[in-house]
Structures are given as structure tokens and as C-alpha cells.
Amino acid sequence: MKFLPSLLALGAMFDASLAAPSSSLEPRACTTPKVRKNWASATTAEKSAYINAVKCLTTKPSKLGKSHKLYDDFVWVHATLFQQIHNVAAFLPWHRYFLTLYETSLRQCGYTGNMMYWDWVADSAKPSKAKVFDPTTGFGGNGNTTSTVWGTNCVLTGPFSKSSGFTLRYWNDEVRPHCLLRVFEPGYPEYNITEMYGDNYSPSVMAQVNAETTFDGFSNYLENVPHAAVHSGVGNLNGDMGPQSSSPNDPLFFLHHTQVDRLWYLWQRANPGARTFAYGGYKWPDYTPAGLDDLMPMGGLGANVTVRTMMDVNASNLCYKY
Ligand SMILES: *[C@@H]1O[C@H](CO)[C@@H](O)[C@H](O)[C@H]1NC(C)=O
Ligand SMILES: *[C@@H]1O[C@H](CO)[C@@H](O)[C@H](O)[C@H]1NC(C)=O
Ligand SMILES: *[C@@H]1O[C@H](CO)[C@@H](O)[C@H](O)[C@H]1NC(C)=O
Ligand SMILES: *[C@@H]1O[C@H](CO)[C@@H](O)[C@H](O)[C@H]1NC(C)=O
Ligand SMILES: [Cu+2]
């Protein structure tokens, strides 16, 4: 293998010759980060622009060349990669990347705003009253909970209601067309179960999550307690937001995950020197230690990128703030 060093040297020279001195090839600095807003404080016009762009995704062709719409690409990729991206170190950076690809698709549908988040910590005492569930300016409310048969709990109000004609193609990774399904957890005070499991994402729980000082500790706590409780609280077993690999079926998924991303960002910013590139835990499929140079698969929705590229939201490829 004597030839290796010289080949590597040649490669380096070749790279140097490609890097033209023109400053136009330099990545642009992130001088004006895009601001991701709280849904609850967005204007009615901003909310309707966002919702119209989501509906537009359901009319555009698949980027994966599949016989479903662009919206379904996001559901499909999340469902098929599910085990690779949950309960592993890449949970937070993978979903950060997924959100940016979704935001790019919304912009291709004419949306000029940024992703918005649902601050469920603020709404944890009475989640069902959250503005995201508003029947006219939000994502509609609960499903019809008359029956417990799968497929009957259709959302009755708002832009994604059954009567709006909004339909979804997948349930987990199977083709099972259905209306948008939600089954809010009603809460059972006698069993200490709060409405939509809100006590799992209260300010006091979030204070405990934020007190974690390692990436691994923070990520696992955030994923398994507040993040999981919001999924179950909105969807339960028969709703799209429940513990389903197809949970991006519910357009609220993306506001939920923008909040998860924001909580990570706030944790990073609480100690940027130590935490911006703090990463650790285990990776799929062998559960060996994870690292910043691990590649994250995106199922063809975007290039496979390293974890490192998703750590700093102030880098030119992300360039946003909360
Ligand atoms: C973000 O990047 C810009 C340009 O590189 C820099 O001026 C600014 O200080 C950075 N902000 C933070 C919060 O790191
Ligand atoms: C709710 O579901 C029940 C049973 O599936 C059905 O009979 C009823 O018409 C539904 N209600 C509405 C408002 O769609
Ligand atoms: C509910 O919580 C209270 C206070 O923590 C506790 O005393 C009670 O035993 C709990 N009830 C049930 C059914 O778990
Ligand atoms: C991305 O990674 C997956 C495996 O994780 C691989 O099958 C696929 O070919 C890669 N795609 C690209 C464009 O490199
Ligand atoms: Cu997920």
C-alpha cells in the first residue's frame, strides 16, 4: 500500500485546484438568521399561509418517484427509517434535518415564512385549549371519539377535517388510506392521568430535562418523556400522532418537532461553548458509540449528511433562530 500517501497527496492537490479563489464559492455567513415563531403569537395571515402551503404539499408529485404525493414522502421516509432515528443519538439532529427539508418544500409551495412551533410547555395545564387546535385558525381539534374502531376517529373541524377531503395514505408503513385521526387523551384524575398527559411536559418536568448536562441525558429525557407524551396525548393508539412511525401524517407533527428542536436549541444556547457540538449516545444498528461524523440517511428526500452539519443552527446551511 505504498502508493496510498502519494494518491492522497494528489487528491489534496486536486481539491486545492478546485477551490477557486472566488469569494462567491465561500459559504455565506449566517448574518440574518431566519426567526422561527411561536404559532400562538403568529398572525392569522401567517397561520393561513402556513396551512395553505401544507395543503399544497398534498397536491405535488413525490420527489421519491413514488405513486403518492410530496406530503406522503415525509410520512414514508419517517416510517421506513423509524428504528434508525428514534431512541438513538441521532434523534435530535435527524429531526432537525427533516424539518429543514419540510420547510424547503413548503417554500417550493410558495410559503415565504419559516417553520413555527407549538409551545406545549406553555399549554401543558390545558393542552386541548391550545391555539394550534383552533377550528378556524389552527389545525382543527379532536377526532370523533364515538367509536374505538381504527379509522373512525376523524378530525371534525379545521382545514384538515374529514369534510375538507384531507386524506392520508399510510398507517405505519402499510398503505391504509384514512382521514386525519386524533384521539385526545381525556385524562382520568382518579388515576393521576392529566389531560393529554400534560403533566409530562409541564414547566417543572422541562426544568428537570434542562438540568441534564450531557447530550445523551438531555436527548433521552426529552425524547422519552415530553416528546412521547405529546404524541400520545394527541393521538393515543388510534390517532395519527400516537406512537406511530407514520406520525408525520398529522400536520401538527411538524410544529411539535419544531418545539423539540427549539428546546434542544435553548439547551445548546445555555452553554454554547460546551454544548453546540455536544453529542453522544449510541447509533443504529449496532448500538456502538455515536459520533459527529456519522452519516444520517434521509431515504432520498435529501442527501445523507453528517450529524455535525446539524449541530449549529447558526451555520450557513441552517441559519435560523428561535
Ligand atoms: C451567527 O453567525 C454570525 C455570522 O457568522 C455571527 O456574526 C453571529 O455572532 C453568530 N451568532 C451566534 C449566536 O453565534
Ligand atoms: C362520529 O362517529 C360515529 C360512529 O363512527 C358516526 O355515526 C357519527 O356520524 C360521527 N359523527 C360525525 C359528526 O361525523
Ligand atoms: C395520585 O397522586 C397522589 C399524590 O402524588 C397519590 O397520593 C395517590 O396515591 C395517586 N393515586 C393513584 C391512583 O396513583
Ligand atoms: C444514504 O445512506 C443509505 C444507507 O444508510 C444508502 O443506502 C444510500 O445509498 C445513501 N444515499 C446516498 C445518496 O449516498
Ligand atoms: Cu420521529
TrEMBL record:
Membrane spanning stretches: none
InterPro entries, A to Z: Di-copper_centre_dom_sf, Tyrosinase/Hemocyanin, Tyrosinase_Cu-bd
Keywords: Copper, Metal-binding, Signal
Superkingdom to which the source organism belongs: Eukaryota
Keyword Signal: yes
Domain Tyrosinase copper-binding: 86-103, 250-261
Family annotation (Pfam families): Tyrosinase (PF00264)
Signal sequence segment: 1-19
GO molecular function list: metal ion binding; oxidoreductase activity
Name the UniProt record assigns to this protein: Tyrosinase copper-binding domain-containing protein
